[in-house]
Design a protein that fits this description.
The protein is α+β, with helices and mostly antiparallel strands. It has helices at 3-26, 30-53, 58-78, 123-144, 186-207, 249-269, 288-301, and strands at residues 97-101, 109-117, 147-162, 165-174, 178-181, 213-226, 243-246, 276-277, 284-285, 305-308. Strands 1, 2, 3, 4, 5 and 6 form a 6-stranded antiparallel β-sheet that branches. This is C2H2-type domain-containing protein.
Length: 314
């Protein structure tokens, strides 16, 4: 089976399960719903196996990953229909939105998941609930990887009239990769880079005159990738190099270590036994003669040359 056939098959599977969802929402026995759940889970396993084992193109991998998120949603939408009861029960956030992990199709990704809409009709309320699921997953990821690149994809179902029939299609709205680190204000980041961006895209889409209207909120996919280590490199032209220092490596290391040990000379000279320190390397001796012998050796060992540019410095 080639890559095009794999993508087409996954689309067909999702389409069939959409039809099954409509049937199960109307009138079915608990046994029939249980069978439907098993079929959904079986196809999720098949898609995950295809992602791990097959050498597929990037487009097909993304298609499979997206369709897995739809299958995960079907499993969550169907499952509550198995339970009935009486009385008033306070609704939880997990009754409205649910987080599901998705097998990542790409090695560079740290974590991929989808926030599934179960009940929301209003997009603002969906984003408000989604933020808390987003926040907890980002905080857990930041503990392991201190800097992330994060992007999202909002999926919704749109409807349009065409004669006497209704055409229903899924539309996707992507956001760009943006960096998150330990100091990021997650509430503001989500508002600016996810909620506002997607709402703007939806507004432009509705105003384009296409005739599409929002019918159902499906999910919000979240992709986390590790951000590469930041490096700083300044390239200087030869004629821009004002000062050239040619110093041996030993002296460079010595110069770096001088600062923290400068107070040592004062402390040790206050002791009862007088010590004679070398100003170059901070070695000390018990007599002036030994220090003099050492100074001659130290001067030869740490000989260096400094060249200044003849060009004027402005």
């Amino acid at each position: 089976m080639n890559t095009e056939e794999v993508a087409a098959l996954s689309d067909e599977i999702v389409s069939k399960f959409k039809e099954m969802e409509i049937i199960l929402r109307s009138s079915c026995t608990p046994r029939e719903r249980e069978i439907g759940m098993k079929q959904v889970k079986a196809h999720i396993r098949l898609c995950n196996k295809a992602i791990r084992s097959a050498h597929l193109s990037v487009g097909v991998l993304r298609k499979l990953q997206t369709n897995i998120s739809h299958l995960k949603r079907f499993s969550k939408v169907i499952k509550p229909l198995n339970y009935t009861g009486a009385g008033s029960v306070k609704e939880k956030r997990s009754d409205r939105v649910r987080w599901e992990e998705i097998v990542s199709a790409f090695k560079s990704r740290v974590r991929t998941g989808v926030i599934i809409n179960l009940k929301h009709k209003d997009i603002q309320q969906f984003f408000n609930d989604s933020f808390y699921l987003f926040k907890s997953r980002i905080i857990n990821a930041i503990k392991k990887i201190h800097m992330l690149k994060v992007n999202t994809c909002f999926c919704a179902e749109f409807i349009r009239k065409s004669g006497d029939t209704d055409i229903i299609e899924k539309k996707y709205f992507n956001t760009k990769n943006k960096v998150i680190d330990e100091g990021t204000d997650l509430k503001n980041w989500f508002e600016v880079n996810v909620k506002d961006c997607i709402l703007n895209d939806l507004s432009e889409f509705s105003e384009s005159g296409s005739g599409w209207a929002l019918n159902e909120i499906i999910n919000l996919e979240l992709v986390m990738e590790s951000h590469p280590t930041l490096n700083c490199r300044i390239k200087l032209q030869k004629n821009e190099l004002v000062l050239m220092l040619k110093i041996r490596m030993k002296l460079v290391l010595l110069g770096v270590s001088l600062v923290p040990f400068i107070p040592l000379k004062k402390i040790q000279t206050e002791s009862v036994i007088k010590k004679y320190f070398c100003d170059r390397c901070l070695n000390y001796f018990t007599s002036q003669d030994k220090l003099n012998d050492h100074v001659e050796y130290c001067e030869k060992l740490n000989d260096c040359k400094i060249e200044f540019s003849r060009r004027p410095i402005y």
